[in-house]
Amino acid sequence: MKWEQLRQSSLEDITAWAETQPWCQAMADCAQDAEWHSEGDVWTHTKMVLEQLHALKEWPSLTGYEQTVLVFTALFHDVAKPLTTEVDPETGRVRSPKHAVKGEHVARNILRDLGCDLETREKIARLVRYHGRPAFLLERDEPTHEVVRLSWLVNNRLLYLFALADTRGRDTDSMTRPEENLHFWKLMAEESGCYDQPYPFDTDHARFTFFRQEEPNLYYVPHENFSCNATLMAGLPGSGKDTWLFSNRPDLPVVSLDDIRSELGVDPTDNQGGVAQEAQERCREFLRAGTSFAFNATNTMRQTRGRWLDLFSDYNARIEIVYLEPAFDTLLRQNKARSKPVPEPVIRRLAEKCEPPTWMECHGLIMPNDNMHTQLG
Protein backbone atom coordinates (compact mmCIF):
# COMPACT_ATOMS: atom_id res chain seq x y z
CA MET A 1 0.00 0.00 0.00
CA LYS A 2 1.34 3.45 -0.93
CA TRP A 3 0.93 6.80 0.83
CA GLU A 4 -1.90 8.25 -1.25
CA GLN A 5 -4.06 5.22 -0.58
CA LEU A 6 -2.98 4.80 3.02
CA ARG A 7 -3.61 8.39 4.10
CA GLN A 8 -7.22 8.14 2.88
CA SER A 9 -7.86 4.84 4.64
CA SER A 10 -9.91 4.34 7.79
CA LEU A 11 -8.21 3.93 11.14
CA GLU A 12 -9.13 0.24 11.07
CA ASP A 13 -7.51 -0.24 7.67
CA ILE A 14 -4.39 1.67 8.71
CA THR A 15 -4.09 -0.46 11.84
CA ALA A 16 -4.61 -3.65 9.85
CA TRP A 17 -1.94 -2.58 7.35
CA ALA A 18 0.50 -1.72 10.15
CA GLU A 19 0.09 -5.15 11.71
CA THR A 20 1.48 -6.73 8.54
CA GLN A 21 4.71 -4.72 8.82
CA PRO A 22 7.83 -6.06 10.57
CA TRP A 23 8.34 -2.85 12.56
CA CYS A 24 4.84 -3.23 14.01
CA GLN A 25 5.39 -6.88 14.87
CA ALA A 26 8.52 -5.81 16.74
CA MET A 27 6.45 -3.28 18.69
CA ALA A 28 3.97 -5.99 19.65
CA ASP A 29 6.83 -8.09 21.00
CA CYS A 30 8.37 -5.20 22.97
CA ALA A 31 7.50 -4.99 26.66
CA GLN A 32 7.33 -1.66 28.51
CA ASP A 33 7.93 -0.55 32.06
CA ALA A 34 4.87 -1.42 34.13
CA GLU A 35 5.03 1.79 36.18
CA TRP A 36 4.53 3.88 33.05
CA HIS A 37 2.69 1.42 30.83
CA SER A 38 0.73 -1.19 32.71
CA GLU A 39 -1.25 -1.83 29.51
CA GLY A 40 1.66 -3.92 28.25
CA ASP A 41 3.52 -3.96 24.96
CA VAL A 42 4.30 -1.00 22.71
CA TRP A 43 1.74 -1.85 20.02
CA THR A 44 -1.07 -2.10 22.58
CA HIS A 45 -0.17 1.38 23.81
CA THR A 46 0.01 2.68 20.23
CA LYS A 47 -3.51 1.47 19.45
CA MET A 48 -4.78 3.09 22.65
CA VAL A 49 -3.18 6.41 21.61
CA LEU A 50 -4.87 6.18 18.21
CA GLU A 51 -8.21 5.71 19.95
CA GLN A 52 -7.56 8.61 22.30
CA LEU A 53 -6.76 10.92 19.39
CA HIS A 54 -10.21 10.34 17.94
CA ALA A 55 -11.72 10.88 21.39
CA LEU A 56 -10.20 14.35 21.81
CA LYS A 57 -12.84 17.07 21.94
CA GLU A 58 -10.71 19.04 19.47
CA TRP A 59 -10.58 16.19 16.93
CA PRO A 60 -13.67 17.17 14.88
CA SER A 61 -12.35 20.72 14.46
CA LEU A 62 -9.04 19.57 12.93
CA THR A 63 -8.59 19.57 9.18
CA GLY A 64 -8.29 16.23 7.41
CA TYR A 65 -4.62 16.95 6.83
CA GLU A 66 -3.98 17.65 10.52
CA GLN A 67 -5.78 14.45 11.46
CA THR A 68 -3.58 12.49 9.06
CA VAL A 69 -0.42 14.00 10.54
CA LEU A 70 -1.52 13.09 14.07
CA VAL A 71 -2.61 9.57 13.17
CA PHE A 72 0.76 8.73 11.65
CA THR A 73 2.60 10.48 14.47
CA ALA A 74 0.77 8.14 16.84
CA LEU A 75 1.55 5.15 14.65
CA PHE A 76 5.30 5.85 14.70
CA HIS A 77 5.92 7.71 17.97
CA ASP A 78 7.28 4.61 19.73
CA VAL A 79 8.38 2.70 16.64
CA ALA A 80 12.02 2.70 17.77
CA LYS A 81 11.39 1.29 21.25
CA PRO A 82 12.20 -2.25 20.06
CA LEU A 83 15.56 -0.90 18.89
CA THR A 84 16.39 0.94 22.11
CA THR A 85 14.72 -0.98 24.95
CA GLU A 86 16.97 -2.31 27.70
CA VAL A 87 16.46 -3.76 31.17
CA ASP A 88 18.41 -2.31 34.09
CA PRO A 89 20.23 -5.32 35.58
CA GLU A 90 20.02 -3.92 39.12
CA THR A 91 16.44 -2.62 39.28
CA GLY A 92 14.78 -4.66 36.56
CA ARG A 93 13.22 -1.47 35.18
CA VAL A 94 12.61 -1.28 31.44
CA ARG A 95 13.97 1.79 29.65
CA SER A 96 14.08 2.97 26.04
CA PRO A 97 16.68 5.77 25.96
CA LYS A 98 16.59 8.09 22.94
CA HIS A 99 13.76 6.13 21.33
CA ALA A 100 12.23 9.37 20.03
CA VAL A 101 15.51 10.43 18.37
CA LYS A 102 15.88 7.04 16.70
CA GLY A 103 12.16 6.99 15.94
CA GLU A 104 12.46 10.15 13.85
CA HIS A 105 14.82 8.35 11.48
CA VAL A 106 12.75 5.16 11.38
CA ALA A 107 9.53 7.07 10.67
CA ARG A 108 11.23 9.17 7.99
CA ASN A 109 12.50 6.09 6.17
CA ILE A 110 9.18 4.25 6.34
CA LEU A 111 7.32 7.30 5.04
CA ARG A 112 9.88 7.84 2.28
CA ASP A 113 9.41 4.25 1.12
CA LEU A 114 5.64 4.78 1.13
CA GLY A 115 6.00 7.79 -1.16
CA CYS A 116 4.89 10.38 1.39
CA ASP A 117 5.53 13.96 0.29
CA LEU A 118 8.46 15.78 1.87
CA GLU A 119 6.49 18.40 3.82
CA THR A 120 4.10 15.91 5.43
CA ARG A 121 6.86 13.41 6.13
CA GLU A 122 8.95 15.98 7.97
CA LYS A 123 5.97 17.21 10.03
CA ILE A 124 5.37 13.64 11.20
CA ALA A 125 9.03 12.77 11.71
CA ARG A 126 9.66 15.85 13.85
CA LEU A 127 6.53 15.29 15.93
CA VAL A 128 7.83 11.78 16.57
CA ARG A 129 11.18 13.26 17.60
CA TYR A 130 9.72 15.78 20.05
CA HIS A 131 6.52 14.04 21.18
CA GLY A 132 7.68 13.72 24.79
CA ARG A 133 8.79 17.32 25.31
CA PRO A 134 5.54 18.87 26.69
CA ALA A 135 5.54 16.55 29.70
CA PHE A 136 8.95 17.88 30.79
CA LEU A 137 8.33 21.59 30.29
CA LEU A 138 8.34 22.51 33.97
CA GLU A 139 11.75 20.88 34.38
CA ARG A 140 13.36 23.26 31.85
CA ASP A 141 15.43 26.21 33.05
CA GLU A 142 13.83 28.44 30.40
CA PRO A 143 10.42 26.96 29.54
CA THR A 144 9.51 29.89 27.29
CA HIS A 145 12.60 29.21 25.16
CA GLU A 146 11.51 25.59 24.87
CA VAL A 147 8.14 26.35 23.30
CA VAL A 148 9.71 29.01 21.07
CA ARG A 149 12.36 26.61 19.75
CA LEU A 150 9.86 23.87 19.10
CA SER A 151 7.50 26.24 17.29
CA TRP A 152 10.04 26.40 14.44
CA LEU A 153 10.23 22.60 14.27
CA VAL A 154 6.66 21.46 14.88
CA ASN A 155 3.19 22.91 15.30
CA ASN A 156 2.81 23.37 19.08
CA ARG A 157 -0.94 22.89 18.91
CA LEU A 158 -0.59 19.48 17.24
CA LEU A 159 2.23 18.58 19.62
CA TYR A 160 0.04 19.43 22.61
CA LEU A 161 -2.93 17.43 21.28
CA PHE A 162 -0.73 14.45 20.60
CA ALA A 163 0.79 14.66 24.09
CA LEU A 164 -2.74 14.52 25.55
CA ALA A 165 -3.58 11.39 23.56
CA ASP A 166 -0.22 9.81 24.41
CA THR A 167 -0.77 10.41 28.13
CA ARG A 168 -4.33 9.10 28.04
CA GLY A 169 -3.44 6.08 25.91
CA ARG A 170 -2.25 3.92 28.77
CA ASP A 171 -3.68 2.06 31.75
CA THR A 172 -1.35 3.54 34.33
CA ASP A 173 -3.21 5.65 36.89
CA SER A 174 -0.28 6.97 38.91
CA MET A 175 1.70 9.27 36.64
CA THR A 176 4.68 11.17 38.03
CA ARG A 177 4.00 13.86 35.41
CA PRO A 178 0.21 14.32 35.36
CA GLU A 179 -1.82 15.52 32.41
CA GLU A 180 -2.16 18.94 34.01
CA ASN A 181 1.50 19.53 33.23
CA LEU A 182 0.70 19.38 29.52
CA HIS A 183 -1.67 22.32 29.80
CA PHE A 184 1.26 24.53 30.77
CA TRP A 185 2.72 23.84 27.33
CA LYS A 186 -0.42 25.14 25.67
CA LEU A 187 -0.63 28.12 28.01
CA MET A 188 3.00 29.14 27.55
CA ALA A 189 2.84 28.71 23.78
CA GLU A 190 -0.30 30.84 23.61
CA GLU A 191 1.26 33.55 25.77
CA SER A 192 4.37 33.53 23.56
CA GLY A 193 2.34 33.80 20.36
CA CYS A 194 3.57 30.47 18.98
CA TYR A 195 0.79 27.98 19.73
CA ASP A 196 -0.35 27.59 16.14
CA GLN A 197 2.47 29.34 14.29
CA PRO A 198 6.24 29.78 14.58
CA TYR A 199 7.32 32.38 17.12
CA PRO A 200 7.33 35.79 15.38
CA PHE A 201 10.93 36.95 15.65
CA ASP A 202 11.50 40.55 14.56
CA THR A 203 13.95 39.52 11.83
CA ASP A 204 15.41 36.38 10.28
CA HIS A 205 18.75 37.31 11.84
CA ALA A 206 17.16 37.58 15.29
CA ARG A 207 15.85 34.04 14.85
CA PHE A 208 19.19 32.78 13.51
CA THR A 209 21.07 34.38 16.40
CA PHE A 210 18.63 33.03 19.01
CA PHE A 211 19.22 29.46 17.91
CA ARG A 212 23.01 29.88 17.94
CA GLN A 213 23.45 31.62 21.30
CA GLU A 214 24.61 29.62 24.32
CA GLU A 215 22.39 31.82 26.50
CA PRO A 216 19.65 32.95 24.10
CA ASN A 217 17.93 36.30 24.49
CA LEU A 218 14.48 36.08 22.98
CA TYR A 219 14.17 39.85 22.55
CA TYR A 220 17.60 40.61 21.15
CA VAL A 221 17.51 42.05 17.61
CA PRO A 222 21.08 42.05 16.24
CA HIS A 223 22.35 44.63 13.81
CA GLU A 224 22.42 43.38 10.22
CA ASN A 225 25.54 44.09 8.22
CA PHE A 226 26.13 40.92 6.24
CA SER A 227 29.38 40.46 4.36
CA CYS A 228 27.78 38.34 1.61
CA ASN A 229 25.19 35.64 0.92
CA ALA A 230 26.28 32.00 1.31
CA THR A 231 24.05 29.38 -0.33
CA LEU A 232 24.52 25.87 1.02
CA MET A 233 23.12 23.13 -1.21
CA ALA A 234 21.91 19.91 0.42
CA GLY A 235 20.53 16.71 -1.03
CA LEU A 236 21.39 13.15 -1.90
CA PRO A 237 23.48 12.41 -5.00
CA GLY A 238 21.27 12.77 -8.06
CA SER A 239 18.83 15.17 -6.41
CA GLY A 240 19.54 17.93 -8.94
CA LYS A 241 21.67 20.40 -6.99
CA ASP A 242 23.79 21.43 -10.00
CA THR A 243 20.67 21.91 -12.13
CA TRP A 244 18.99 24.02 -9.44
CA LEU A 245 22.02 26.29 -9.12
CA PHE A 246 22.26 26.72 -12.90
CA SER A 247 18.57 27.67 -13.10
CA ASN A 248 18.20 29.75 -9.93
CA ARG A 249 21.64 31.13 -9.01
CA PRO A 250 23.42 31.22 -12.39
CA ASP A 251 25.76 34.07 -11.47
CA LEU A 252 27.06 32.60 -8.21
CA PRO A 253 30.57 31.14 -8.10
CA VAL A 254 30.37 27.59 -6.74
CA VAL A 255 32.60 25.63 -4.40
CA SER A 256 31.81 22.01 -5.24
CA LEU A 257 33.23 18.98 -3.44
CA ASP A 258 32.69 16.85 -6.57
CA ASP A 259 34.69 19.32 -8.67
CA ILE A 260 37.51 19.45 -6.12
CA ARG A 261 37.69 15.64 -6.01
CA SER A 262 38.05 15.58 -9.80
CA GLU A 263 40.75 18.25 -9.71
CA LEU A 264 42.71 16.46 -7.01
CA GLY A 265 42.11 12.98 -8.40
CA VAL A 266 40.47 11.81 -5.18
CA ASP A 267 37.89 9.03 -5.33
CA PRO A 268 34.76 9.40 -3.13
CA THR A 269 35.85 6.27 -1.23
CA ASP A 270 39.32 7.75 -0.47
CA ASN A 271 40.23 9.91 2.51
CA GLN A 272 38.40 13.23 2.09
CA GLY A 273 40.55 15.34 4.38
CA GLY A 274 42.39 17.11 1.60
CA VAL A 275 39.19 17.75 -0.32
CA ALA A 276 37.52 19.34 2.70
CA GLN A 277 40.58 21.45 3.45
CA GLU A 278 40.68 22.79 -0.10
CA ALA A 279 36.93 23.50 -0.03
CA GLN A 280 37.28 25.41 3.25
CA GLU A 281 40.05 27.57 1.83
CA ARG A 282 38.03 28.39 -1.29
CA CYS A 283 35.01 29.30 0.84
CA ARG A 284 37.22 31.52 3.01
CA GLU A 285 38.49 33.34 -0.05
CA PHE A 286 34.94 34.32 -1.02
CA LEU A 287 34.03 35.13 2.58
CA ARG A 288 37.07 37.36 3.08
CA ALA A 289 36.33 39.17 -0.16
CA GLY A 290 32.65 39.61 0.71
CA THR A 291 31.65 37.72 -2.44
CA SER A 292 28.39 35.78 -2.45
CA PHE A 293 28.84 32.13 -3.41
CA ALA A 294 27.33 28.65 -3.25
CA PHE A 295 28.74 25.59 -1.53
CA ASN A 296 27.65 22.36 -3.21
CA ALA A 297 27.87 19.00 -1.44
CA THR A 298 25.44 16.39 -0.11
CA ASN A 299 25.24 18.03 3.36
CA THR A 300 22.47 15.62 4.35
CA MET A 301 23.45 15.31 8.02
CA ARG A 302 23.05 18.20 10.41
CA GLN A 303 26.44 17.71 12.07
CA THR A 304 28.20 17.83 8.69
CA ARG A 305 26.26 20.94 7.61
CA GLY A 306 26.99 22.56 10.94
CA ARG A 307 30.73 22.77 10.31
CA TRP A 308 30.19 24.74 7.11
CA LEU A 309 27.43 26.90 8.59
CA ASP A 310 29.71 27.78 11.51
CA LEU A 311 32.37 28.85 9.05
CA PHE A 312 29.95 31.03 7.08
CA SER A 313 28.54 32.55 10.26
CA ASP A 314 32.02 33.38 11.56
CA TYR A 315 32.43 35.67 8.55
CA ASN A 316 28.99 37.24 9.10
CA ALA A 317 27.44 35.80 5.94
CA ARG A 318 23.71 35.65 5.44
CA ILE A 319 22.99 31.96 4.99
CA GLU A 320 20.40 30.19 2.90
CA ILE A 321 20.05 26.42 2.64
CA VAL A 322 18.53 24.80 -0.42
CA TYR A 323 17.42 21.21 0.16
CA LEU A 324 16.35 19.09 -2.81
CA GLU A 325 14.64 15.74 -2.56
CA PRO A 326 12.80 14.43 -5.61
CA ALA A 327 10.90 11.14 -5.50
CA PHE A 328 13.38 8.40 -4.70
CA ASP A 329 12.98 6.55 -8.00
CA THR A 330 13.52 9.86 -9.82
CA LEU A 331 16.64 10.50 -7.77
CA LEU A 332 18.06 7.05 -8.59
CA ARG A 333 17.35 7.59 -12.27
CA GLN A 334 19.03 11.01 -12.24
CA ASN A 335 22.03 9.58 -10.43
CA LYS A 336 22.50 6.89 -13.07
CA ALA A 337 22.53 9.60 -15.75
CA ARG A 338 25.49 11.38 -14.09
CA SER A 339 28.95 11.09 -15.60
CA LYS A 340 30.12 9.48 -12.36
CA PRO A 341 27.09 7.87 -10.69
CA VAL A 342 27.19 7.01 -7.01
CA PRO A 343 26.52 3.30 -6.28
CA GLU A 344 22.87 2.80 -5.32
CA PRO A 345 23.70 1.05 -1.99
CA VAL A 346 25.68 4.15 -0.99
CA ILE A 347 22.72 6.40 -1.78
CA ARG A 348 20.39 4.19 0.24
CA ARG A 349 22.74 4.30 3.23
CA LEU A 350 22.91 8.08 2.97
CA ALA A 351 19.11 8.25 2.76
CA GLU A 352 18.73 6.23 5.97
CA LYS A 353 20.79 8.80 7.88
CA CYS A 354 19.46 11.88 6.10
CA GLU A 355 18.39 14.83 8.28
CA PRO A 356 16.71 17.52 6.17
CA PRO A 357 17.59 21.07 7.26
CA THR A 358 15.36 23.16 9.51
CA TRP A 359 14.79 26.85 10.22
CA MET A 360 17.10 26.58 13.24
CA GLU A 361 20.13 26.44 10.95
CA CYS A 362 19.86 29.38 8.57
CA HIS A 363 18.34 32.72 7.63
CA GLY A 364 16.49 31.37 4.59
CA LEU A 365 15.37 27.82 3.85
CA ILE A 366 14.27 26.63 0.42
CA MET A 367 12.68 23.22 0.10
CA PRO A 368 10.79 22.96 -3.22
CA ASN A 369 7.23 21.70 -2.72
CA ASP A 370 7.36 23.03 0.86
CA ASN A 371 4.96 25.97 1.03
CA MET A 372 6.72 27.45 4.08
CA HIS A 373 9.94 28.25 2.23
CA THR A 374 11.34 31.72 1.91
CA GLN A 375 14.14 33.02 -0.21
CA LEU A 376 16.80 35.61 0.39
CA GLY A 377 16.16 39.04 -1.06
UniProtKB/TrEMBL annotation:
Record SUPFAM superfamilies: HD-domain/PDEase-like, P-loop containing nucleoside triphosphate hydrolases
GO MF terms held by the record: hydrolase activity; nucleotide binding
Ranges of residues in domain HD: 42-146
Signal peptide location: none
Keyword Hydrolase attached: yes
Keyword match Nuclease: no
Keywords: Hydrolase, Nucleotide-binding
InterPro entries, A to Z: HD/PDEase_dom (IPR003607), HD_domain (IPR006674), HDIG_dom (IPR006675), P-loop_NTPase (IPR027417), tRNA_CCA-adding_enzyme (IPR050124)
Protein name: Phosphohydrolase
Source species: Planctopirus hydrillae
